[in-house]
TrEMBL record:
Cited Pfam families: YceG
Protein name: Endolytic murein transglycosylase
Keywords carried by this UniProt record: Cell membrane, Cell wall biogenesis/degradation, Lyase, Membrane, Transmembrane, Transmembrane helix
GO biological process: cell wall organization; peptidoglycan biosynthetic process
Naturally occurring in which organism (per UniProt): Aureibaculum algae
One GO CC term, this protein: plasma membrane
Annotated InterPro entries: MLTG-like
Site residues by UniProt (Important for catalytic activity): E214
Role: Functions as a peptidoglycan terminase that cleaves nascent peptidoglycan strands endolytically to terminate their elongation.
Reaction(s) catalysed (UniProt annotation): a peptidoglycan chain = a peptidoglycan chain with N-acetyl-1,6-anhydromuramyl-[peptide] at the reducing end + a peptidoglycan chain with N-acetylglucosamine at the non-reducing end
Amino acid sequence: MKLKKIILAVIAILLIGGGLIAYQFYGKIYGTNVKEDTAIYIPTNASFDEVKEVLTPVVSNIDSFVWVANQKNYPNVIKSGKYLIKKGMSNNALIDLLRSGKQTPLTLTFNNQDTLEKLAGRIAAQIEPDSLQILTALTDSKFLAEHNFTKATVLGLFIPNSYEFYWNTSVENFRNKMLKEYDRFWNTDRIAKAKKLNMSKNNVITLASIVQKETAKVSERPTVAGLYLNRYRDGWALQADPTVIFALKQKHGQDYEVKRVLNADLLIDSPYNTYKNTGLPPAPIAMPDISSIDAVLNSENHEYYYMCASISNIGSHEFARTLSQHNLNAKKYQQWLNKQGVNR
C-alpha cells in the first residue's frame, strides 16, 4: 500500500512537472510578447543578430523569440522589409509574419524639390536606399541616354504625387517605376498640347518650373504661363526673376538667400539668366507640380507681356500689356520693398 502511494505520488509529480514544462513551452510559442503597435524595418541581407537588434526594444522577452525562431528555422529565411506588428502578438505569429515576407507598403511623397540632391534626400528618408545610391541611379549615363535625359533635366522625370512602394524597393525599381509614372502622366492629350505649343516635354516642364517659382497661387498660374508663352513665341527674353535666383544659387550655394533681385544680379553670366538669354533655360529650375505643368499646357489666352508682384494683394501679381503700365506697377512695388527694408 505504501509503495502504491509512492508510485502515485511520483506519477503526480511527473504530471505536474510535465504540465509546467508544457505550459512554459506553450507560453514561449503562443504567449504575448510584442509590447506595442509599431513598424519594424528589416534591412536587406540582414543577419539574425541584426533582426534581434531591431526587435529587442519592442518585445518583452527576446530570448523566447530567439528560441521559437530557431525552432521555426527563421534565421535561414530572413526577408527584408517594413512590417507592422501588433501589441500582444505571440512569437509564433510574429515569426510567421516575418517568414511570409508580407510587408506593409508605404506611401511615398515628394514635391517642390529644387535640386536632384534634395530630391534624393527626400526619397532616402522614406525608403531603404540612401541618397547617394539614389543619386547614382538617377544620373547613370546609360539610363539618361536611353530615356533622353541629362543630369540637368532628369529632375523633370519626377511628377509630384503620392506613390505606393515597399520600403526595401531597390534604387533600380524605384527609378523604373518613376519612369512608368512619367510615361503615364504624359498621355496622348498632354503630348498633343505640347506639340501644339511646339514644345518638347522638357520644354514644358522647364517653363512650368518657372511658373511654379513665380507664383504660389495655383489659380494665377495659367495667367503667368500665358504671359511667358507670349514672350516666348514673340522671341522676347522671358526676364523671369526665378531664373536669376537659380543662377545665383548655382554660383553661391543653395543656402544663398535672395529676397530681392537687384539690377546687378541681372548681369550674372549663366545660361539660366533669362534676362541675358532669350528662349528657355537649358533645364528646369525646380520641380513643378501638376498644376504648373497643366497651366503651361492649358494657359490663359491674353495679351499680357509684363507682370510685377502686387502690393495690394500679397502673393498675387499685377499684369500689364504695355511697358509704361508695367513701369508704374514696378515703381509701386520697389517703393514698397524700400519701406519694408528689403534690400537683398
